[in-house]
Amino acid sequence: MWTEALCRKDSDGDGLTNGQELGDPDCVWKDNTLPSRLNGLSHPGVCDPWDSPDCFSKNLSHPRFHTQEEWLKEMCKPKEFICPGLNTSDIQTANFTVRLGTKVPAKETTYMCQIFDFENMAVADDYHVVAVEPVLDNKYVIHHMVLFGCRDNQVAIAGPFECGMVPSDFCTHVISIWTVGLAGDCFHPQAGITIGTKGFKRIAVQLHWNNPDSRSDWTDSSGMKAYFTNKKRPYEAGFYITGHEHFVLPPLQPSVTFTSTCTSACTSKTIRKPFNITLAWNHMHYAGKQMSVQIVRNKTETFYLSNDIFYSYDSPQVQLYTDNSVQIFPGDEIITKCTFTTARRNRSTFWGEATMDEMCYGFLIYFPKENVQNSVCFTSGPDVSTCDTATYHGCTDLTNFKNPDWLNATSAYQDLVKNCRPFTPCLQECIDTIVSLKRTDPCFKDDLFDFIKTEMLTKTPEGLDLMARFSSCERHVYQTLNTVSPTRA
């Protein structure tokens, strides 16, 4: 915490206070403001000048450091991947890296995937993946990587290809996720993920490249290295994901918070038996300020799986649980809370894939996998749960809006077809129809209908037709709904 005492302290003993080094010489800086001086900043933990008589011995306090370059190399080296049991004779490895020399497109955000045939990479057998670590080639563009297991009907694809947030509809099972600041995944000694003859035979790697300068001369062949063994462990591990999607952050706000609740009813439905959490970490992007994943049991007992009071995308805090003492039960509430700051952003920030978009996800590794029926629990838009879309504030099954047969049979769609034309012109009978729907049908309320349009209606021609007819009179409908007639007044 930046207090006046810390500001006036000289932590590195070079004669300058921490405040002087960081641009706050008068110790008046407040959260979400800029310091009074932005130039000539220095590191409050490094004595300067580095090689001066007073500082040299302080900076080279360890006998193996003889030069500034050696010291910097040690201080700035990446975290070491430590995972017990990887040096035994039964452990094998496989690298799932994109083809050497793959060009990074000259655009800010790219998702690049490659799908591998594991059956051609190892002797036919049944294996457990027990650890995964990153293989980093071009650290200047790599934002995060995901290793996926694919269903048997997915064919291997020899070279890299541009993809979305998943490589394909058949490659959706998360084996491991890496992002900047992590050393790798070391699974619990009692659990692993099956690959080979009785498990995933095709493995996909996804790379998220961030190239904000749109450079055309970058290449990258990063990926993931899997450690596996044919001495299978007692339990199958799984990946559980919580969080909130499809949100918008307004600009110039010091704090914006979204809370996603995986309800007691939801976990009672999707969790068969209690399961053990072995690892938990939070994921937002650079507007992320604070995040937690909290478990509430019986409305009274509360504990945190993760709780980043000061979130930093570049330094994710991983919580390890190795003693089987942390469990999630059917009926527990899982509350994911994300707080963002857009104080320095002049435009709205959207949920999305790009680095300058935002996310709100809690990642959990657990076992036994078979105790969980559905390993994702999100809320979207106006707090619509992916666990239960049967009813939301009186709007029955939201997923029906993706079904063209159901949509064609509804009186709402038939009235819109009868009274509204796509896009233009706006007819009075269309205004009357839409105003009536907004006043009587909960599915057409503003926030919820915006979510339905984005996530449901865009999936079918019938849905797009409904949106086009609706849009023909949107401005007039808004004016009508916000004008109170003398009679109604």
Give your account of this protein's structure:
The protein is α+β, with helices and mostly antiparallel strands. It is 18% helix and 31% strand. The protein is built from eleven helices and 28 strands. The protein has helices at 4-8, 18-22, 53-59, 68-75, 264-270, 404-409, 411-419, 428-440, 446-455, 461-471, 474-481, and strands at 92-97, 102-103, 109-117, 126-135, 142-150, 157-162, 173-179, 185-186, 191-196, 202-210, 219-220, 223-229, 235-236, 238-245, 248-249, 256-262, 275-283, 288-297, 301-308, 319-320, 327-328, 333-340, 349-350, 361-367, 376-380, 384-385, 391-392, 395-396. The strands form seven sheets. Strands 14, 17, 20, 21, 24, 25 and 26 form a seven-stranded mixed β-sheet that branches. A hairpin with a 2-residue loop joins strand 27 (391-392) and strand 28 (395-396). Helix 7 (411-419) packs antiparallel against helix 8 and helix 8 (428-440) packs across helix 11 (474-481). The longest helix has 13 residues, at 428-440. Mean pLDDT is 88; it is low at 485-489.
Please specify the SSE layout and strand pairing.
Blueprint: H1 4-8, H2 18-22, H3 53-59, H4 68-75, E1 92-97, E2 102-103, E3 109-117, E4 126-135, E5 142-150, E6 157-162, E7 173-179, E8 185-186, E9 191-196, E10 202-210, E11 219-220, E12 223-229, E13 235-236, E14 238-245, E15 248-249, E16 256-262, H5 264-270, E17 275-283, E18 288-297, E19 301-308, E20 319-320, E21 327-328, E22 333-340, E23 349-350, E24 361-367, E25 376-380, E26 384-385, E27 391-392, E28 395-396, H6 404-409, H7 411-419, H8 428-440, H9 446-455, H10 461-471, H11 474-481
Helix pairs in contact: 7-8, 8-11
